[in-house]
Each structure stands twice: as structure tokens, then as C-alpha cells.
Amino acid sequence: MILVDLNAADDRPIYGQIADRVKFAVAAGVLRPGDLVPSVRELSKQLVVNPNTVARAYRDLQAEGLLESVRGMGLQVAEGAADRCRAARREMVRQRLRHAIEEASQSKLDPREIETIMHEEWVRVNGQDNGDGRS
Amino acid sequence: MIQAQVRAGAAIQVEGLIKRYGKQTAVDGLSLTVPEGSIFGLLGENGAGKTTTIQMLLGLVRPESGRIEVLGLDPVRRGLDVRRRTGYVPEAPVLYDWMTVAEIGWFAAGFHLDSQGTTSGYQYLYNELMRGFDLPPNKKIKALSKGMRAKVSLSLALASDPSLLVLDEPTSGLDILVRRDFLESMVDLAGAGRTVVLSSHQLGEVERVASHVALLHSGKLILAEPLDELKSRTFLLSLTFASRDHLAGPPGGSSLELIDISDAPRQAHWLVRAADRAACEAVRALPGVEGLQIETPSLEEIYIGYMRARRPALAPSLAVHVA
């Protein structure tokens, strides 16, 4: 049984958010190949959303080959899903950054100013760069 | 007795429903279908006709004209049978204050005899629900908080294991935890293939759990369709214009249907209905348009837009979307 939570501020369709959360869980190893995902009924109760919404998320994940049906038991994480979910997570990050860059570009700010802002925000979140965790 | 034919998969079918109170028309030619297994959100301002409609569905009020089928039955002629198969949580439930939580369950069980004429099925479920909601069995109803009274009401409705649950603003004035309990029960029922009709002002909650919504205004139906269709076809357009003298709305012949407009000297917000996002992008090319942002509005924003309905005089009138 995994715990999934939704971000109330996110205005993307809920079924998409649910699918993404499952992918993140698989990418992080919280859900491993062979693990069962919660039933539609269970998850819809946990998230307090319409069961169709969960069903749609699960259908999409099945179509992507990340979940597979196990007769009599439900849906489980497919073999090889972890790598694909990590790739999907990377793609998601790319898209969000792209969206932010599009917005920044439309603002008609100087491109160098945008880069400065990006660097400042990176430092704010991660500390001084080099990725060694030290500020 | 000939049983009415139910359209496959329809828990409720309503056609041309009319109800008048003196000179006032409370429900004005309402037609809609509630699919089996759906969570159907009934929205509208106070006095829009939601409660009257619900009362007619349950056979508590008689329509002037129109056809109704609830779970395959005519509530006008077989109201008792409809109410036996339906769990109903009215807006202001009337409970016997002097009874305890356990006693009222025992009392209500008498109205829900099973095929062997016993009350054990109802009693068993009621006890389970009492436990699940943490209700003190020996406390008198009059000593309960508002939230606990609401849970008693819900337990009474669910104990009959109904195929249809009808809730008329069940959680107004109640705290978030009680509202959660109600929502979880609704979702659980729908997960089991039962049907839920929910009349509510809590649009955020309706948006989460409903599969379908219908919007009533002054007794008339404004729209009724699956929620995900409504959300995928309604867009909020934020426009910036080159000058103060700009378009009043989408030009005639545009594929965009205008719902509501907010105007400012060089800006406007258009709430529109369109086939898809691409159809909205076309607005970018209209004369005088400098900038365009397309967003997906929340159910609350959609509802407010339909209620405000500020449209320039020349805009075509809105077609009713029934799906």
C-alpha cells in the first residue's frame, strides 16, 4: 500500500497527477516490479476522488506498459518499469522547466537577466553549486 | 403492474419535469439522465429548484407534468418503493431528539424489512456504520454535535445498502472532517457501482468526486454533462489588446461559444466553450489582440461564469449542453 497525495494547487487534471505520483514512486523504488498498486476503490477512497479518475490513471499507466494486470489480484508494477519511470521523471522536469522558460521569455526580460535569476534560484534551493551539498 | 423500461445504465431518467408553486415555477421543463454508478453533482443557487427536483425524484412532491424514472420505478405511483431502495440525507434531517443513536437505528430498521421480514440486515449495517463513524450508541440525539447528527443521518441512509444515495447539501455548516467522511462514503459507494446524487454548494468537493454535473438556474437546466468533458471544453482566455477600442467578444461565426466576459480598458477575460485548446489559439490572430493566455478554469470559475453570464448583446444565446 503506497501513500499518494495530490497537490491542491496543481491545476493539471487529477488523473495525470495520480499517474505521475505512481511513476515517481516507481522511479524512487518505493514501488518495485511485482508490487501491487492499491485497488481503484482503495485509492479513490484514500484520495477522495471519483473512482473513474483513478481508473483512468491506471489505464494510462497500463497503456504505457508500466502496470500490468495480475489475474484475480489487480495491477502490479511491470518489469523494467523503474528505468522508464526515471526517464519519465526526467522528461517531466524538462517540460516544467520548458514551461518556466517560455513564460520568462514571454516576459520580454533580457535573456542574461533570466539566466541570472535561474542561477540565483538554483543556489537558493540547492546551496552554492558544484552539487556537493555544501553552501 | 407494468414496470417502466429503464434506458440501459440510467439510475434516474427525467423528462420535461415541471413544478409550480402558485405563480412561481420552481422547476421548468427539466430533462436529464443520471447514469448508474455515477456521482452526479447538482449545482445551482438557492431556489434554483434542486431540492424540489430531489423531492420529486423521491416521490415526496408531485410534479405538474413530466416523466420520472428512478431505479426503473415511477416515484409518483411507487414512491414508497423508491424510498425503500434509496438512501436519502435531506438538508435538515429530522431526527427524534429523545432517541439515542442506537435507538433511532432500531426504529428506522422497521421500515427496511428484508425478504424474510426481519430487520437484521439493516441493523447489522447500521451498527457497523456507527462504529466506523465513532458514534456513541447510547447518547441521545439532542446531545450530539451538528457533525455527529449528520453522521447519524448518513448512517441511517447507508444502512439499507441502497442502490441510490441522494444527498441534499448534507454538510453545510459542518467541519472539514465530517465533510471528508461524507465524501469518502460517496466515493466508496460509487466504487461499488452504486449511484450518488449530490446537491452541494461545495464546488471544490464536487469537482473532486463527481463524474457528472448539472447546473440549474431559476428552475431551468443550463448544462448537464460528464465533468471531464465540461473541463476539457471550457477555457479561460486572458487577452491583452493593443488599444482600448477592442473586440467585445469572439466574432460572430467563431467556433468559440462565449459564456462570460470581464472587461478592462486593454484587457479582457473570456470564459468560453470550445472544441479544444487549438480552437482557442485562433484568438491570437484576431485584430487588436496583443497577448493571449489560455487556462483551464476550476469548476467554481465555470459555475460563476455561467451564473454571471455577462455577454455583449450581440452574442448568440447559449445552447444547453446535455450529454
Characterise this structure:
The complex is a heterodimer of chains A (135) and B (323). Chain A is mainly alpha-helical and 135 residues long. Chain A has helices at 14-27, 40-47, 51-63, 81-106, 111-126, and strands spanning 67-70, 74-77. In chain A, strands 1-2 form a two-stranded antiparallel sheet. Chain B is built from 10 helices and 14 strands. In chain B, strands 5-6-7-3-8-9-14 form a 7-stranded mixed β-sheet, with helices on both faces. Chain B has a 4-stranded antiparallel β-sheet with strand order 11-12-10-13. Chain B has a 3-stranded antiparallel β-sheet with strand order 2-1-4, covered by helices on one side. Classes of the chains: A mainly alpha (135), B alpha/beta (323). Chains A and B meet through α2 of A and α6 and α8 of B.
Show the helix and strand layout.
The complex is a heterodimer of chains A (135) and B (323).
Chain A (H helix, E strand, L loop, with lengths): L13 H14 L12 H8 L3 H13 L3 E4 L3 E4 L3 H26 L4 H16 L9
Antiparallel strand pairs in A: 1-2
Chain B lengths: L9 E12 L2 E12 L3 E6 L5 H8 L7 E6 L8 H7 E4 L11 H9 L10 H13 L13 H13 L5 E5 L7 H16 L3 E5 L3 H7 L2 E6 L2 E7 H7 E8 L15 E8 L2 E7 L3 H5 L7 E7 L3 H10 L12 E2 L1
Parallel strand pairs in B: 3-7, 3-8, 5-6, 6-7, 9-14
Antiparallel strand pairs in B: 1-2, 1-4, 8-9, 10-12, 10-13, 11-12
Helix pairs in contact in B: 3-4, 4-5
